[in-house]
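We give the entry.
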Amino acid sequence: MVRNIKKNSWIFLLIFIFSAATMFAQNDLVPIKIELPSPMFVGTPTNLSVPNLEKPLGKPRPPFLAPKGTKNVALGKKVSSTDEFPIIGELTMVTDGEKNADDGYFVELGPFTQSVTIDLEKEYNIYALVVWHFHKQARVYFDVIIQTADDAEFTKNVKTIFNNDIDNSSGLGKGNDMHYVETAEGKLIDAKGVKGRYVRLYSKGNNGNDLNHYVEVAVYGKE
């Protein structure tokens, strides 16, 4: 009898400690600060002929919580690309902090599957990534694949955090994520704290043309 009481007491104590630790961890999370550009069009078209297209949320995106101290660690970092000579703009525009949809604020890459790679210069725990491809008009970009890695060649600790290549046309594996319409909010990807130094984003044209565009990419992480 006494032994059972002691056993139950230990169980209750462990439950209390676990609950307290969970509450502390939750209280240590804060909304990340995402500065949004002015929208260029109102509403999200629903008549786009694109398969596997997610429905518009119909309201502002809810805040994304991450550990205190999480910030955009991609800001001002070096960007390389499979297209070394963009048709329009410069690769530095991908991480310059400017999210305006007007002409002169985006880089335009050639057709087919293209990618941009951001060197964060050190390893971070990455909690979220937000990408703005082009939001001057409603567009859907295809084969959006986002990966992290420890090396520039993407051979070490490669993790895929988003993939909407529904038919493996880019050769990186079939993805289960949905296509989405570009808006001024950008597309927020939950990276779940994955560790990595390099971030690579692929795309393969859009529903308007075969070209690839980037206005801005923000990577929210913490050492």
Q: What stands out?
A: The longest helix spans residues 2-27. Residues 10 and 156 are 43 Å apart (CA to CA). The radius of gyration is 21 Å. The helical segments are 2-27.
